[in-house]
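REVIEWER CHECKLIST
Item 1: Sequence provided? yes
Item 2: Single chain? yes
Item 3: Sequence as submitted:
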Amino acid sequence: MRVKVGHLLPGLMCAMLAAGCASPATRPQGQDVLLPRDVDVIEATVPRNATLQGLLKGHKASSDLADSIVSAVRSQFDPRHLKANQSYQLTTTLDGLFREFRYTMDADRFLRVALKAGTTANAPQFEVQVVPYPKEVVTSAVRVEISKEHPSLWAALEDRGENIQLALLLADAFSGDVDFNSDLQPGDWFEVLFGRVMREGQFSGYEDVKYATLANDGRNLSAVRHKGPDGRDAWYDDKGQSLKRQFLKSPLGFEPRVTSSFSYRRRHPVLNTVRAHRGVDYAAGYGTPVVAVSPGTVIAAGWAGGAGRRVSIRHASGYVSNYFHLSAISAGIQPGSKVDQGRTIGRVGNSGTVTGTHLHYELIKNGTHVNPVVEHRHMPPGVPIPATAMPAFLSERDLLLGSLREMLAAQPAAPTARGQ
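Item 4: Structure as written out by the authors:
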């Protein structure tokens, strides 16, 4: 029997045990019974720059035992992917012999390493499993409005008790039509139907957005998640037209702002000379993920003088995109690598000739620099829902829209923002 250190079981359990319990006549009524423990359980979080081997040795595991565990784990999990601040649990006998190790991989899974029954410390064998957490997905809905007090999607959702992950999912739905860095205005509003993931009764994260509407600058946009002709989920408007374009409107999320636009005459802030600024500068926090705006092939990745760490990607139709001043380039991003739209290729930084942290983003068409903002307006949408699949699409659209309206109608009205 394994009992966590200091764990108390109700006195009612005494009737089920053969020894170690006081009789009702000698034990005060209602008093809990402290069972003798036979294991120690350590619960902690992974420190920075830790390795799995070092973590185990820090809890008095021998080098041979730690090596054996790491070797066994590799069949299910790459120990190099151990992340700081993730929780773990180590169970040992009272005399320090290993019994089990659990590590939280993400919100959905944990790694379990247990000593196989019948093996010994001299010749240990282990059961290694990646175990999904039991979870429940609860369909939820929320309406938010952009205001002076909450000028971004993130801020508006946070005011309603949601977090940035839902904002990222919602931004992805409209990323082909809306630049969340600059397009949102006070008075714009969002309605969104999504899945809220619960684990052991506690919020654990979000499942994909199912349906969303956006009122933006006189436009009413809808986003329906539905399987496309290739069998993969994609975004469509309420008429079945694809919301995906060849290029995303921005290589960043929705919070950063444009600090310098495309121009043929701009005074360089460091060199103090007037020259063309053939791209867009985005202010963003150091380390912010930078994503590929379109599928393509990496043609350059590394140091490039005043551009600092840069990545260049060749796309279809004669386009090349450039990303300058990165703090880091993602693993696997090298000349010849294939990337999908939305893949993280690096992190915002201040490398090269700069005055501060930002991303410089360029778009080149057939060898000539073009304004990314203007060019995006002329790009055609993706493949629509085929005519043969439209009845199923329309039925699903109506079902999702009905669920959204019903759930929002059942909620109390959000307080009106001040100054509106």
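Item 5: Key structural point noted by reviewer: Helices lie at 52-58, 63-73, 153-159, 164-174, 372-376, 390-409.
Item 6: Recommendation: ____
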